Here is the input.
Amino acid sequence: MSLGAIDKKNFASIILLDEMINKERVFTTILQSEDKVLEPLLVALLAKGYLSVDGNKYQVTKSGEDTFDVFMNRYTEFLKMYDVYSFVDLEKGEFAFSKYFDFDTDQEWDNYKNDNRFEDLRIAVALFKKLNPAEIVFMSFINENAFDTEATGWQIDLVDDAIWNEIEKVCDSAIKPEDLGNDAMEDMVGQGAELLINILKEEAKRAQEEKQNINYNSTDIIEETVVEEYTYYEPYYDPFYVSPFWLVPLFLW
Here is the structure.
């Protein structure tokens, strides 16, 4: 696939909004040194109302904050929902996450899930659900700190083609729904959703038991916590379901 100009603009804009909202980085209308390459993007965000100017400083507007919130909703769900599809043994039809609670240390768990027999099916699931696969890869890059804005020259990296070409390559080389067949995809997506909900139930139960130290009224509290944790994901029992915020355009250019 070819990563379109709009995708690149969207993703780079998310990185800038994150810098301004969460890291309180200040960009001025007269940009200095390495920030200069960001000027076209900042001006575009200003023209569309995602930024405003206060004195000589760019400020994120309500529209910019709302757009960033939409992305963060997607990103939060990506980390929770789609991770379960990142390690799947296609030959055995087995999810690595089915053994999630079988290991005592993070190192043991990492060694298990990184076995070569497991395939990453997150892009296949995204395509099956009619989502943008490039956005899924972009999120995984964020999670792996590929956009290190503490590094010297990160601004140039953001506007350069190298990292976007890398996202294209990941999308191109990934397993696609047509490689597995529609019936197999539907079954796999449904199994993953069921597995995720069971994991959330178990996580919530263990956390609450530890917190309450198994006191006399813990059963009711555990039940309330479990319901709160996993009810959100119950619609995903339908393999074709996606949360509404995935359908909202990130930016209107």
